[in-house]
Amino acid sequence: MNEIRVGILGLGTIGMGAARILIEQQELMSRRLGKTLRLVAAADRNLDRDFGLDLSEVRLTDDANEIVTADDIDLVIELIGGYEPARTFVARAIEHGKHVVTANKALIAKHGEALFPLAAEKGVAIGFEAAVAGGIPCLKALREGLAANAIESVYGILNGTCNFILTKMENEGADYADVLKEAQALGYAEADPTFDVEGIDTAHKLSILAAMAFGSKIRFDEVFTEGISKISAADIEAVHDLGYRIKLLGIAKPHKDDSGEERVEMRVHPTLVPLAAQIAQVSDSYNAVQVSGDFVEHTMYFGRGAGERPTASAVIADVVDIARVCSDGSADAVKYLAPPMGFVESARKELKTLPIADIRCEYYLRFMVQDQPGVIAAITSVLSDHRISLEALSQKERHATQAVAIVMLTHETTEGNLQAAISRITSLTHVEEDVLILRKESFGA
Amino acid sequence: MNEIRVGILGLGTIGMGAARILIEQQELMSRRLGKTLRLVAAADRNLDRDFGLDLSEVRLTDDANEIVTADDIDLVIELIGGYEPARTFVARAIEHGKHVVTANKALIAKHGEALFPLAAEKGVAIGFEAAVAGGIPCLKALREGLAANAIESVYGILNGTCNFILTKMENEGADYADVLKEAQALGYAEADPTFDVEGIDTAHKLSILAAMAFGSKIRFDEVFTEGISKISAADIEAVHDLGYRIKLLGIAKPHKDDSGEERVEMRVHPTLVPLAAQIAQVSDSYNAVQVSGDFVEHTMYFGRGAGERPTASAVIADVVDIARVCSDGSADAVKYLAPPMGFVESARKELKTLPIADIRCEYYLRFMVQDQPGVIAAITSVLSDHRISLEALSQKERHATQAVAIVMLTHETTEGNLQAAISRITSLTHVEEDVLILRKESFGA
After folding, report:
1. Contact residues on chain A for B297, CB-CB shorter than 8 A
2. B394 in a domain, yes or no?
3. pLDDT by residue (tens digit) across A249-285?
4. Which of B93, B128, B291, B326 could form an S-S bond across to B76 if both were Cys, CB 3.0 to 4.6 Å?
């Protein structure tokens, strides 16, 4: 077909961005595509406002059901967000034979595995490039650009709010709570920032990246997740003195144990990255995804991870991809599309997730202790019992309390062994309970 | 078809990498693709050697004509390099109805515009991701991932040899000639390094990127090209003191003049980039392409720009892309492929290249002068005549000669105006002829 008729669910920030591209860049889209993308209809609960865009050619409705069932729509863009009613509308659109494009990471992370077979059955595609790292075409890179590679690791700075906060804490020596307030005032953080700062948003995105990298199923519930709210300005400084920077990373790696069983390691946590690493240079609210493959070595994809215009750019890229291959809107169309996860559906594997206790890392540890003789000796003695050796150790005075911070960098050990040691250390006299444990990653680039 | 039969022309470094992926990653490729990629045949002039890979299932020949005309080959990978005989073999393969994938930037930059219509006529695709920035899937990002955007600028570090030399000069305070020798000893630079260090290789790649970004034709001959061979350790230091780093960049931007005529600016030269810019962090032999679009804002793609394995990764990504859409090998196949330049052929434009005299830049100028009273006054007076104002000026002693280096950073002016001023300045008494002119770019990210 020479015209792809598009409907949008949700005219919020990103919805308006997508509408703007479809209307204002229509000629450019046609030059690229040889087909016309036409915005036919849009649904939003609040239609009584100034959209700042001429929508006179667009059928507006406050009932999303009209869009997902309409006969004159080939592709539905879902930009409602959240689990419900987004899931219901997407499922209904698919059932009515419509391709779907979404920016909804929560939806794909949680319900993708139920929606993909439905789409395959109906011969339609689901595009979700905008769900991970906003405007950056990183899913396309992983799925198609690196198709020749067995993926060895994925590291992502996937949440702009956290990266903004960490950058500002480092640049200004400011504490977490103060910077968070500032980020909220600037609109970079929500009134309830839990989803962002506790790593849940990053975990949604990581679970999608991991499935695409390794041909496994999306297992959001199995991602080990820690946020940035326990990090102090003093930690950032201590880490910097050791030659590192703290970034909230989503990390995914494949494993094969001695018996040949494959597993996937998935974790989200504040991470020490070497100051010279490419990913350490990603500051403010920018996102980046570093993917290493056995042939391509290290690659990195950088850009805006959120915002009306960048996210809409990724949404429309998916629309263009789908429009390129859908010749007649029939069930045949989808077979020309890359399968949504970059692997043929039947070749995807039920890979188990590596338990967090089994991962191997180097660690940054910060203990708060009372400044008594023998405390360091007691701590290092426990570590030694657990065969955890140290790369660095320093003692810093903290101004706000009477306690003293002891900072250590360990050599590699398993998480399980480390946690056992920490548990013994925090039961020592003169050692306070709030230990900060950060994991360190080395980067080839 | 469920099997794509591949032939390789040239079993050099990259050819062996491509063969290795096709053989060693066959199962992974099938999982991703749902089809089998089979290496059927390969041609090389020297077959009497140990390939370090089991090629017993592969028909080997020293006659490339056998491959490009073979009935049992669907897709030919051209890895001979250079203009001829590569062009002849590629044209012949297309005439015989075979898809072509190549890593040959010289070929595409020079002969692409003749080969694309031939391929369209025969209903086959030409893939050349590997021709630009090696393993980095940047053409895919530009063509597909950013399809919703009018592209506002493209900046590329596209030659690993130059980036390696500049990084080493900066890190070690070493001079160009010494570092070049070291790069040659390490195999990073050719015995005759002209192609790399004088910017020609970068210009090949830039001309392809520009055509893809703006939907224009490839105009390699119109790229303004300067290399890095005139840069001294002292320049790198002086630039660093001003807050910049020197990178050899390929730069492409669109222009619209007052009459509405669109033009494209294409230039390759050593460029001052702010130390904090993302692209300034790209060191050693790494490549990166920064693309900014009107919706996506700034994006950057980073990775290995050369080498057996990374380049082969990009070659096979193209093979996978073509295999995904070629259902029956007929002339229909190509219509499902993105047009090679990211624009429908009939929508591509004959955009004129902006003459270099019309570009606007800020400049770094280094004059060698005899230390006489009034020299600086005389120079700045000429600049003032040309309405070129200065942002910074400093005078540095040079050890090797009696002459003194005067370093300046100008505000924005046109290249034509600057060159006119320079020509007057070099005719002044006490000013030597070898002026170094570097252009400065600002970066949003």
Report:
1. 135, 303-304, 307, 309-310
2. yes
3. 999 999 988 888 999 999 999 999 999 999 999 999 9
4. B93
